[in-house]
Request: fold
Amino acid sequence: MEIWKDVVGYEGFFKVSNHGRVKSIDRVSMSGKKIAGRVLKTRINKDCYEYVSLNNDSKCATKSVHRLVAIAFVPNHENKPQVNHIDCCKTNNTASNLEWVTGKENIHHASINGLMRCGEKCTISKLNKLQVREIKELYATGKVTLEKIASKYHVSNSSIWNVVNNKTWREVS
Reply:
């Protein structure tokens, strides 16, 4: 059964359901115009989460649907800051699929479920596997400093340190 609750901060304007839907409520605007309520269309952000735009007569904001559902329906007794999709599907925003987690728990869940983008799959990676092999080989010779390697590949000294100490790119030998 679908249950609807007020969206916190938008009471009287929007409701969210345990099925992961958001709707506006029939209301009269400050100018006296009648506004019919409706289920809102969601959009997908760059991280593949569904979101909606909410506004009332005083504020407008973009909100993630999964957070709205979790705030309304998922108890957060330990005051954890993040919401995790248990089945790993970022568009399954049903209350039964959501849980409150710490950042560490969220990363662990993503890691064990193969959701972590690492190496060349990471959109912010400045290196590729060939470059990482070259870096490891250069450093192993003992003839080139971390600073010079970092300069050559246009990355930070700490990035090189992480590569040569197998903190990142462990899969490349």
